[in-house]
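Predict the assembly for these two chains.
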Amino acid sequence: MTTQTTGVPLRAKPRNTPIAAVKRGSVRKSWPQYLSITPFYVLFLVFGAFPIVFSIVISFTQWDGMGKITFVGFDQYRFLFSDSLFWQSVLNTFIIWIISTVPMLFLALVIAFLLHQNIRMKSFYRVAFFIPNVTSMVAMAVVFGSMFSDQFGLVNSFLQWFGGTSAGVQWLSDPWGIKVTVAIMVIWRWTGYNAIIYLAGLQSISTELYDSARVDGAGTWRIFSRITVPMLRPVILFTVIASTIGGLSLFTEPQVLLANSGVPNLGGTNSAGLTIVLYQYYEAFNKFDFGYASAIAWALFVLVLLFAVINWRLVNGRKENAFGEAVPGLFARMAQRSKSKKEV
Amino acid sequence: MAAFSRRSFLTGATSVSFLALAGGLTGCSSQVSVSTNPKELVFWYWDRSMTPSVLRDAAHGIPGTNMFLNSQQPPTANWDTKLRTSLAGNAYIPDITAINSNVSLYFPDESLFVDMNKFGAEELKDNYFPWKWEYGLTPSGRMCFFPIDSGPTGFYYRYDIFAKAGLPSEPEEVSAAVRSWDDWIAFGQELKAKVGSYMLIKSGQLFNQIINASPERFFDKSGKPLYMEANSAVKQAWDITVKAIKAGVLGNQQLSTDQNAAWISGKTAGHIEAVWWAQILLSTAPATKGKWRLASQPVRAGNSGGSFLAIPHTCKDPEAAYRFVTWSQTAEHQAQAYNEVQLFPSAPAALKSGLMKDASKGFFGPQNSLDFFTKQAETVPAAFISTFESIASFFTAEITNVEAGAKTSDRAWEDAVNETNRVLQKNGVQL
């Protein structure tokens, strides 16, 4: 607050400058407030900031979690770049993310749209759709494990009864089966959550828009695609960002679903269910290679950062380009383009 | 609401939270042992890993010392992480701890544990199975991990299903019919053809149990990989497993839901696992009581599981801790451990003591499982488990890929060797 450049005692100086006096006074006056929020910051420093900083340090070392810590420079990162298993985990994460997020958000939007109609027992459905989100994932993995079990699963029995293949689908041992099952678990858990968010967005859209559309003779689908979706764009973007973060850090589902007694969980057949965080967990708590696990964590951080920037560009666009001209965001540009096309 | 102002509320709340924080922080001023009481030795174990009555006695005083034992059970789920964390932080370390069959993971940090040869453990060597004793020796020959129980393996099978298939079904007949792995696979093919049942749940299980019964494993004591050598034990186990996969006698049941359903329904009519699996089977498939029998697995029995006792270097009184360790694992106490929590002894004298009662309660019909495993334990070979075996788990993962039809066996073998070598090099092993 004050720089001690003169010989004047620190205490005397602020009295001469009214602004500093106000600031100082306000600190003194509101110390209980500052004091009351310090526990959070102290706890954050100890349990939040310190581990973050320490994990950077650890990522430059070889450490088994209890013995000597050896500094190895960039060796962990060099290994990471050449580690096919890591790149496979990145690919898996993206595939599972795409095949779960796209159907999930679409389904959520449809459910929200239907819940927004004048139907009976609205609150019941809202609660029902949200319940998966607050159910214990570990318990659900047991249920999903039984349902999608390769040889004794309910889903396969159902498919066979329906006249499908006699062997059924190898949900938990076929590479694609694993990815689809994990994705279904994600969809099951998060669709209701996103639907509730969309519903909140829908409720903020003025009914006049719908009314006038009806008067103009628009059907339900036209109203949905021409009014609801465009008006919901900011909400949709929010859910896309939220599910990107959730998708990139996917862990619980493959961990509990593919847990195999006696063998460390590397994501099942051909490591098809190995996500980035599952690989990180494997390195840290099965291999006790904390250096490499930290390096994976920071690689994931860079990936998330990359996506945050992409998302940010999509939403906001660059405010100005190198020449100082304003550049609209991608979505704004797309909207502009379609608008000008229509005018032509 | 009007009783106190916002300011006084904030002040009060703040001082309360500061008090709590101060309490938390003073706890951080490193206390090396879990307990500060100089007469108290803290012992970490998990449920059913030690004899309850022995622990109760030790709580009143460890015989021959003036110390007493405080037994604690930290959460089992992250056992190794918990122990590592306290050792890394040099704080809240137990004075004695149980460690599971994965002791080799602690070999690189053997200096963190007391060498029990210092107190004359060497003299007790002959009281225990040589193979079990060998597992607890570090590569440099220090005795850091003292034997608790052992896990001799056998071939569990469904008597009723074998009989239905018209195959040998009495334990002696089955043991005689599956002397070699080729016989075992041929037996399985007949079983499959006649009643459609598998011999074993999955390839990884077969592969691991063949390794568990082999005197040679993945590495030698110097850390040199052995699997790349011509005709190595690992390659032989691999080839047997591939043959079993191709013969169609393995169930490809990778996860526990499928496995449990398979055993209960009889879709899989066998399993190769240690003595402790009987207890799991008893609770998983109680309806199959009386239908199971035990036969010798091909070639010889192996060891799967079984835990150890260790004394961390920070122990208050290593000598008293050593007294507890040896006293709690006398033949008499190991016999008691079997009767109380079904821990199979690692001291042969316990098995001959006549104090133990078969725990299978008719699960294996008239067959006595205790007699059976006592005989198996004698054939288990001594072997060295290297700390690098956690890296070699790629072999199990890759054989599973062969079973799932995702890779050819040659390709999977190559991948397993390359992956393992790559991670070994990263961990500073010269190839």
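The two ends of chain A are 60 Å apart (CA to CA). The longest strand of chain A covers residues 61-62.
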